[in-house]
Amino acid sequence: MTFTKTVYIALGSNKGNKLQYLQSAVDAIFEKIGLVNKISKVYKTPALGFEGDAFFNACIKVETELKPKKLLKALKQIEKELGRSTKKTDKYESREIDLDILFYDDAVIEEKSLMIPHPELHKRKFVLKPLQDIAKDFEHCKLNKVVSELLKECQDDSEIESVNIWLKNPRKNFGFSDYNFIAIEGNIGAGKTSLSKKIAHDFNAKLILERFADNPFLPKFYKEPERYAFTLEMSFLADRYQQISDDLSQLDLFKDFMVSDYDVHKSLIFSKVTLPEDEFRLYRKLFFQVYKDIARPDLYVYLYQNTERLQANIKKRGRKYEKEIQDEYLEKINSGYLSFLRNQTDLNVKIIDISDKDFVKKREDYLWLLSEINS
Question: pLDDT tens for residues 332-346?
């Protein structure tokens, strides 16, 4: 399991198209470091400690899985890619972009190459003013004062002027706001729950997760499939109906849309594989009676992974009752999904092959997948 940390980063530029440098830095941080949660206003301030053009400054709040030293390395690489050259002296100088870590949660790091919290932030109005926009109540873990207090007590009397231009959050390039309900589907071990959780977290969606882990018939089915198949499918039929009808009817005014790690029609797909023909016909009748009024998703995303990757993922998550799953069963389930999706003329379907991707561990793969969904 990965854990995200909240970091605050200061951005500054006083060379060339300063606003574009700031925006390019925000975009690169989103791509390489993590979710950009908040962006301050842009402020114009004079160069301090040397002769040079005025700076444009801003601060951002970011969630990242990178540890402090890797975060610093990534920021230095972004500076380099945006054209900043290595300093030849210890003196202050003009720069295309300057990226500084202010806080890394409440961590205290005191090393030659990295000091957190930033040792000078409480002395600099050009840092504290934009930081107050996004973190006025955040407490400095060494000074034991919140940012708004630090700004009031700051002795820096340099002029600071708000620029009437806002930096754009790269997250808004992904058009999930066009949908009310998205279903993420896939075979066993495809990663649908992981993706649903990430989308819900990153894009303010209500999360609906299938309650399969609570089903007492699932371990029995994997041991004796012929004996427990009908019982299992009927229990899923009832439980999925109860859950999805409850969740879809309970609107959350503070969420932008809903994302689920399953679509109720998976009951038909799995039952066709697990049940004899006569039992499936009966099950199908019951299904359409139960689900005739359930809303369909605005977008149906099917994550395809090859059987080898599915088995690796199943093994990795270590559920005892899944140890006996055979390749043949996974291939039948995949064929069932694809056959079902081919016949859905009224459903907005996207089938995405992620067999060579790892969107959980690699941010570039995650962003690629989001682009594919939104293409």
Answer: 999 999 999 998 888
